[in-house]
Amino acid sequence: MDFPHLAGWSALVVTLGAIIFGAGRRLGREESTQRRLRDDGGQDSAFYWRGLNFLLADEPDKAIEELVKFVRIHSETVEIYLSLGRLFRARGEVGRAIRIHQTLIARPNLSDEHRTAALHALAEDFRQGGFVDRAVDAYRQVLHVDPDHRAALAGLQAMHENEGRWDMALELLKRLEAVTGTPDPRREAHIRVRMGLEVQSSPAVSVGDARAMDHFRAAIRVFPGCVEAHRLLGEALLVLGRPEEAIQTFEAVKSARPSHFFMLLDPLRRAHLQAGDEEGFFRGMQGSVAALASSARLVTHWAAWLEKDGFLDEALEVLTIGMAYHPRSLAIVSPLITLLARRERCQEALEIARRRMDELLAVQIAFQCARCGFKAQDIYWKCPQCHQWDTMEPL
Ligand SMILES: [Zn+2]
User: Fold this and answer.
1) Residue ranges per structural domain of the chain
2) What's the confidence (pLDDT) of residue 247?
3) CA–centroid distance, residue 308 to ligand 1 (Å)
4) Rounded distance from Cα 91 to ligand 1 centre (Å)
5) Separation of 364 CA from ligand 1 center, angstroms?
6) Ligand 1 centre from 4 Cα, in Å?
7) pLDDT value of residue 19
8) What tens digit of pLDDT does each residue of 307-348 get?
9) pLDDT of residue 283
């Protein structure tokens, strides 16, 4: 059973629990009601007890059948309708969910709270069914009644993002952040990056357009670790012939997001070339021990560049430092062994290779369950995950 499915079920179980609990309390209070229910309604309540049992036994089709019978008799029970609708949507039966929610909304005596809930559910149905315009419309109706409706704000925001309407996605994100009090700087930064890219891609606009660069700068302000905003801002500065500022922009990632700095090596080198200072690039890189410490990818990238340019000893040094920081990284060990061999330091190469082999063998998975995929070092005659006997095969 997958997750949305499960969420639908648990919502229904909770709703049923609340209804049964409420009914129990009413029964306790009113003797006459109790008698009436026992005499006339015993058949009805049997439907939802059976429904609940099927639900707990993970038999959704039978559960739905019983619950629909119950709903037919207790047609005033809005919560059950809402839960059934959610259940249908979770099972991918969007058409049935839409019908349930539309029928609810059409009721003249529905409370405002229930109407908003049904409208929001309808918006979710339309969204899942791919009816974008109708979903947007339904979300807007919810927000018209309740401007702080978190789920509707989040749903509409996600829709605008998926549709690439970045300015509206940003506006909704700001409203959502104001309501929840929880900022989402990574999301905001990438929306602003997309807004900048949109400006750049419009006709008669160049890469160095000031409005696009403002978007990239805003993205960096809200999330200084946004690699893409740094890259795009730096590239625009290069187009404008301002390589020193581009270098500053790329270099800022070294401290703001050291794990991703390796992604900017290529534009950083181009910026240094444009500034007529290729030497500065190599000097800066050699001094980047802190950045090396945080990223095995930077170590291997930088070493590969050095090796390609013929600086074999420098490459060896970078890899050796890198291995000290990232002792488990095969990406570092592999070129290190090759380089040591190239420098005819075969004994060292062999020693490193043998040590890594031993470490790998020690953690290698030896057995796997052929039925459920459970992996283990030792054999289990009864699989701890799927509880079948004798299903584990050696790998
Ligand atoms: Zn198993």
Assistant:
1) 1-91, 224-286, 288-363, 365-395
2) 97
3) 48
4) 27
5) 19
6) 24
7) 54
8) 998 999 999 999 999 999 998 889 999 999 999 999 999 999
9) 86
Tell me the CA–centroid distance for residue 394 and ligand 1, in Å.
Answer: 13
Strands 367-369 and 375-376: antiparallel
Contact call for residues 316 and 343 (beta carbons, < 8 A): yes
* Fold of the domain built from segment(s) 288-363: 1.25.40
Distance (Å, rounded) from C-alpha 138 to C-alpha 152?
Answer: 9
Quote the CA–CA distance of 71 and 99 in Å, as a whole number.
14
Distance from residue 358's CA to the centre of ligand 1 (Å): 28
Parallel, antiparallel or unpaired: strands 392-394 and 375-376: unpaired
pLDDT of residue 107: 85
CA of 318 from ligand 1 middle (Å) equals 44
As a whole number of angstroms, the distance between CA 337 and CA 342 comes to: 9
Return averaged pLDDT per consecutive 10 residues of the chain, 395 residues in all. Answer: 50 58 45 42 63 69 72 70 86 90 87 91 93 94 94 95 95 96 96 96 88 97 97 97 97 91 94 94 83 86 91 92 90 94 92 90 88 92 93 92
Cα-to-centroid distance, 369 and ligand 1 (Å): 5
Closest CA to 229 of 197, 196, 193: 193
- Residue 282: what residue type? F
CA of 389 to the centre of ligand 1 (A): 9
What is the CB neighbour count within 10 angstroms for residue 36? 12
